[in-house]
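Worked example

This section walks through a single chain of length 299. The input is the sequence exactly as stored; nothing has been trimmed or padded.
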Amino acid sequence: MSECPVCAGTDARPSFTKDEYRHFLCQGCDALYLHPVPSEAELADYYVAQEEATRSSQCWDRGEQDYKHYKPIWDAALRSIESHAGKGPLLDVGCGGGQFLAFAREQGWDEIEGIELAPGAAARAAERSSAQIHSVDFLANGFSRDRYAGITMWNVIEHAREPRRFVGEVERLLRPGGLFVADCPNRRGITMRIIGKSAYVVMPPEHLVYFSHRSLRQLLEAGGLVIQELSTNTIYINDWVRYLTKPKAEAEAREAHLTWYSRATSSGLGMGVIAAANIVLNAMRLGDQMLVAAQKRST
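Given that input, the structure is written out below as tokens.
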């Protein structure tokens, strides 16, 4: 029986197979995970291929408009980190093209750093944010302990082969009272509940673990962090466009998704509708994304 990467439990049931990758549901913590996990070498080859094929144009170099809906979340994260542990140093793990770091710079954060393994993305992040970008494995970074006021991971932890070690390293690097802020797909969100394995976010071997409220809380608390906030938000519009209209190509779904967000986030009314929808989704824990803030104990 496979061991759950979140709680180390061995009571897991087969859930589904997608693209020949088997997924199991842990009965102990409610995490959904891929097993067997590809090797580090296999994942490295996959990410190199992805960078060459799509990532530089579709994600890491996405424009300002694509990230406008994220800015209230980023702003709240920075304010929360500052209130708990001061204004820096700040580390963004898996920083991609540096959009969040550039936003932090605009908000007056001077001590900002990122970790990004993909060469093209790392170069773009450094150019965009003027931050120090480390091209190192997060689990072998060599940084001194108690170094950061805040550590962020935007859609990163679901990629981790060893999420327990990830959280342990976060706890080591945070200064006492420092804050970890992250988001990730919610496996109990409305899209995965209804569309299931056909949801775009189910993308093996890129996403290795899918968390629920219960599994994410258990992971962070077992790693010594104290949950300050755990909420949900967002609907995966691209999935619903594909699900309802059956577009001929993935590009059509993506274009529709970006067009919707561009229109919605270009007006105060649109942003208000998104905010109201997020309140409802969070109350029902049905948002497709989870947002968590967890603090390192002061003593």
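What to look for: The mean pLDDT is 87.
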